[in-house]
Structure formats: structure tokens, C-alpha cells
Amino acid sequence: MQTIRARKALGQNFLVDRRVLSRIADLVEIEPGDRVLEIGPGKGALTGLLAKEGVRLVAVELDTRLVPLLREEFGDNPRVEIVHDDILDLDLRKLLASEGDDQRWKVAANLPYNISTPVLFLFLDNRDLFSRLILMLQKEVGDRLAASPGTKEYGILSVLFRLHFDIMRELIVKPGCFHPVPKVDSAVLSFVPLAVPRVNVGDELFFRRLVKGAFSMRRKTLWNCLRGAGLGLSEEGIADALARCQIEPGRRGETLSLDEFASLSRTMLELRGVEGVR
Ligand code: SAM
User: Mutation test of ligand 1: which of 63, 113, 121 has the most ligand atoms closer than 8 Å to its C-beta?
Assistant: First the structure.
């Protein structure tokens, strides 16, 4: 592929280390008949390893300069489709449903770091479409996803993803494996969506509001965070819910386990029913 100058605004750090590329392709665990979605194929280094025989591959690339080059490179393979679009703008469900059945997709992506959080939420909200995701992320984001309660990395992403995925950190990738060289380490993580949520949270939208509220001010107590979180409960109701779940109001949000968040969510929903939603 001809020389293309990397664009920082598009998060372009191209993976050039052959061993890391093939390790990532192996982690996708591709089998004949699989459907694979790649986000940000760039110059096609990983795409070439994913486009195995019998595999349907859809790759979404935003860079207008790269799309024609990718189409030329993979033009011989009718099962490879290069979609020119912004992954955050397109209707993912519509794109992937166009095959006409509900076979799940595998995902491979060396994500542009500037959009990794919204893309992660896209996967979270459409998790039923996927069987396995292999994502390269900034190491710090990977640490947050896999963090345990009580650590400084533990936050909203850790809780929301643990509810729906088994996550494994598969490898750390050093800056020298990319061109241009980024300033930070990267991590490759595998995500396997759970068939059912790990715990019952009552209502997912309410649960998210609760978790976001609990982490809204990291230096403040849970009590102070939840009072202002718009949970539709009186202060007495919040205090009552915490007491019923045996959670000290003076604790900080980052000390609560997924089970504790889930029981708080269910209890608050129950009390909202009693108080009447505000
Ligand atoms: N997969 C290639 C590799 O590993 O060398 C490129 C990875 S590079 C970190 C990220 C890629 O995502 C770039 O090709 C960039 O143009 C593309 N990209 C950036 N923002 C995007 C978006 N919103 N939608 C789709 N692709 C995007």
C-alpha cells in the first residue's frame, strides 16, 4: 500500500509488528463460516490476516484516503466489504443484520484511542450481536475494564462491563510495535458476552444511573454522590436502601462490588415503587 501520512486526529498508530498482528488474529479464533467485523482497518495489516477463506469480513474505515486502497487490495475477495463510514454514526445493528440471520459476529479492532470509550459503549449496548471481541486499547483503559473494587482504576467501565462480559487481558503491546510510535503502552483484551447478566440489577437504565452517580465525585462519600444523582428517591429513601443493603453511607463508590451495586439497584427500585417515582 502506498505511503500515507498518519493522521493524529484519526488516532492513526499503525501496528507494524508482525508477531503482535498474528497474535491478535489468532485471538479472534476465526473458523470457516465466521463473520468478522473490523473497526479501523487502516492500511489493512490485520485485515489481511482476518480475511481467511470462508470468512465474511466487514471492515469500517473512516479515512477517505485509505478506503480506495483497501478496496483495491481486497477487491478480489467478494466476502470482504470495506465500509466507508464513522463507526459512531452508522447503524451497527442494521449493517450486521443485513446477512439475514442472527449468526453472531466476532470483532477485531485496534481502536483509535480518542474514540475508545464511545466504541466500548456501542459494544456494550449491542452485545447480543457478538460472540467474541478482541480489542486493542490504551493500557490504562484496559486496566479500568478489568479492575477490581477498591483500586484506583475501578470505575464505571469496570462495573458495567463486568455485568455483561468475561474479560481477559491477553497481552501488553509496547509503543515500538506501532508507527508512528504512541506515547503510551497498549493492551489487547478479549471480551466474551455473557448469555445472561452476571447479576440481576432490576432495571439496566436505573442501574447505570446509580453507578454513574456513585462515581460522579470520587473524593466524596457514596451518600453525597447519591443524594445528587437524580435517582428519584428522597434522602430518607436513599438512606433506607443503603441500610437495607448493609452498605455504610460513608463508603466511597469505588469500594462497592458489582453484587453490592446490583442489590442497591434492586432495593432502590423497590423503594421508588413505595415512595412513588419523583
Ligand atoms: N487496524 C490498523 C492497524 O492496526 O494498523 C489501524 C489502527 S489505527 C489505531 C485506527 C484506525 O481507525 C485508523 O485507520 C483510523 O483511520 C480509523 N478510524 C479512526 N476513527 C474512526 C471512526 N470513527 N470510524 C471508523 N474508523 C476510524
Answer: 63
Q: Residues with Cβ within 6 A of ligand 1?
A: 10-15, 39-42, 45-46, 60-63, 86-88, 110, 112, 115
What would the pLDDT profile of 104-149 be if each residue is shown by its tens digit?
A: 999 999 999 999 999 999 999 999 999 999 999 999 999 999 999 9
Q: What is the distance in A from the centroid of ligand 1 to the CA of 45?
A: 12
* Ligand 1 mean position, distance from CA 11 (Å): 7
Q: What does the pLDDT look like over 191-238, one tens digit per residue?
A: 999 999 999 999 999 999 999 999 999 889 999 999 999 999 999 999
Q: What is the 3-state secondary structure (H, E, C) of 194-233?
A: CCCCCCCCCCHHHHHHHHHHHCCCCCCCHHHHHHCCCCCC
CA 40 / ligand 1 centre spacing (Å): 3
Nearest CA to ligand 1 atom 2: 42
Nearest to 136 by CA among 3, 21, 248: 21
pTM beyond 0.90, yes or no: yes
CA 135 to chain centre: 8
Q: Enter the C-alpha cell of residue 267.
A: 432495593
Structural domains in the chain, sorted by start: 8-193 (3.40.50.150), 204-275 (1.10.8.100)
